[in-house]
Amino acid sequence: MRSARTTASELLRLLAEISTPIYWLDEQRRIVFINRAACAWLGVSAEELIGRQCRYQSGDADPISALADSLCPPPEVFHGHRASGCVSKPTAEGHLERRHADFIPLPGEDDHWVGTLAILQATNSATDRDSSAAPLSGDTVDSAPSSESRILHELLQRFRRESTQWHHLDRLVGRSAAMARVREQIKLAAVNNCTVLIVGPPGIGRQHVARTIHAVVNYRGDIARTEGTLNQTGLSVISCSALPPDLLRSTIGSVIERNKMSNGLTPATLLLADVDRLAAEMQPEIVRWLDSNPQNLRTMSTAREPLEVLAERGSFHADLAQRLSTLVIELPPLVKRREDIPLLAQSFMEDLNAQGEKQLRGFATDAMDRLCLYDWPGQIDELAAIVRQAFAQAETFEITSADLPKKLHLAAEAARHPRSTPETIDLEKFLTQVETELIQRALRQSKGNKSHAARLLGITRPRLYRRMVQLGLAAGEEQ
Amino acid sequence: MNDVQLIIGESTGDWAAELERRLPPSVSLVETRSLEEMWERLHSSPAAAIALEFILQRAEQLLAALVRIDREFPQAMVIVLAGCKLTSWEEIVRESGAVHFIASPRKVEEVVELVRRRSIFSVDDRLASSGESVSLEDQMLASLPWGS
After folding, report:
1. Which of A136, A347, A419 to probe the B interface (max B CBs under 10 A)?
2. Which of A161, B82, B97, B118 lies 20 to 30 Å (CA to CA) from residue A48?
3. Edge-to-edge order in the sheet of strand A269-273
């Protein structure tokens, strides 16, 4: 009679050799067995995966940890429920290739869960191939047999993967000294969990820099050649200009709640966009929150001007300015670094080449001269928009000056012939317009109550009424 | 002064009907029934506010649209409108570039408030980022207190 050990090793040999990909997780969600077929599909050796823990989360660490995470069953399996779903592996093109999988939870003698057996479909079905290989670019979700949470999980994985690629440090092009400094500061920000303030005019790419820092954090291994980073989180952007105080409060609250649910192991990043427009009443609240910040959320913010300059002027809370400005990254306007324009324009054009059939070589000399002469008040966003427009317009293998919008030609002309007559202003008319507008606003603010409106304007009620009559704002009203 | 365009992308017209009653006259409402129609509108008003209905069956398309808006129309502001059962999508929707996620038709006032704030900041933003010329009058009026 053969021993139990011999039988077990034969079973393992059989499982290792079958053509159906399978793997086994223990109660700690560690991979304890994976057969040859599964390794062949994943393109790694069993030794690389054995002992790795699978986590049901969406992010990117070193490639092998990310691969182990992509094998994680839906969490209901850990509660003893058999489930079907998909496992995925990244392809060389950066997409995900998926296979249908059955996950079988295995209870021990006392019904205590001891592990999970995962059986993968031997080959890709047509359905799996359709939705798995597509980047996040427009195909509909193949919902069956996945649950809503599974779809969400997979989309989040793909979104974060693509976002990290899009915001790779190498994509911050520019040969100016200012941009070289920005790239160094980004690396510094990524290795220090300090507050970061990104300052620059609207359209210069402040959020892009914030997302790049976030991407560098997620891929810290690539930069510092270290492994094992656990920063695999989302970036929550809170628009301080768009959201009124109550919504700001509740949105920050929900980010903190979500972070709590991840047990604080993977702290999220909070980006306070346009923080210089944060309502005054909210500023002390943010100071208190930053002081406590129990979950160690990474905090970044963007502003048009350095907050400490605003604080000196008295238009921003000094403590908050100081707390948000540990590392200040300044993005100078394009007009101050014209040497970056050719590289940026070429980079935007090559992005467009990558998206479709049309392929252009670059810019004709006269077109590039026009781009470099223009002042770009809308900064990089305006440059990107104009390159898109010219790309669509171009009929040859390169963008010529004829493909550029008229305003660039006018700007070049204006630079050659500066205006000689100064702009005039009708002071009386303008002051009347301002007074009318202020009175109307005060009346709206006070919901039509003239005494209250007069107080807001710092004048008496009779004087307000007289001005309303004179300005034609009191038609049909009695004092 | 400070006119804002609100482009609504939804399948039924329910949100648009509700918003039309509550938005201030300075906001022009444009209804669209498909993403293609929305892109057309957005090309002519790249700094518009957009209210986009989120439906589970089209989740991937809508997320891709949010990413595209964020990259190609950075001056636009997107609010995502969803049903109350879709709250779990808030995180990815916000990460994709939406400034706000509303998971209940009862919160239509939040859209109104966001669009109203948008109109307050619009002159300042136009001045700073679009390259359009904004008159001195508009600049000064935009800096006056108590909103618009």
Report:
1. A136
2. A161
3. A235-239, A269-273, A298-303, A196-199, A327-330
